[in-house]
């Protein structure tokens, strides 16, 4: 699917505010509301836009402690096996296969250090995990939910 500059701008506007009306977006990209709707429908049908969601501030629900955990896995552990295992842990907010020494990088959020330690212990108990290395987040410097350049 070809994505032009207008599509990119629509995507950026939806990332900034998924509740923006088609009319508001149309004003910003010089299209009518029905034209914006057709483009959004096309982007959704093509899988470019996979859905719309609410972004919840973790601190507001009490999950203020976070860490990144490098997982080192046994032998021929597949990405599918890692993915299936980490999905069972509610503290996991992201997981990625990576290059370098580690096999995967897991992003955890927890209520406090004790909760984080429990989550780490459960994660390390997965049968394929041979070792792990954790880094606790002190502060967030940049966080962006979208792709590409931001809108202005």
From TrEMBL:
Gene3D superfamilies: 3.30.70.920, Winged helix-like DNA-binding domain superfamily/Winged helix DNA-binding domain
Transmembrane regions listed in the UniProt entry: none
Domain HTH asnC-type per the UniProt entry, residue ranges: 3-64
One Pfam short name: HTH_AsnC-type
Coiled coil: none
InterPro entries linked to this entry: AsnC-type_HTH_dom (IPR000485), Dimeric_a/b-barrel (IPR011008), Tscrpt_reg_AsnC-like (IPR019888), Tscrpt_reg_AsnC/Lrp_C (IPR019887), WH-like_DNA-bd_sf (IPR036388), WH_DNA-bd_sf (IPR036390)
Keywords, comma-separated and alphabetical: DNA-binding, Transcription, Transcription regulation
Protein's UniProt keywords contain Membrane: no
Source organism superkingdom: Bacteria
Protein name in the entry: AsnC family transcriptional regulator
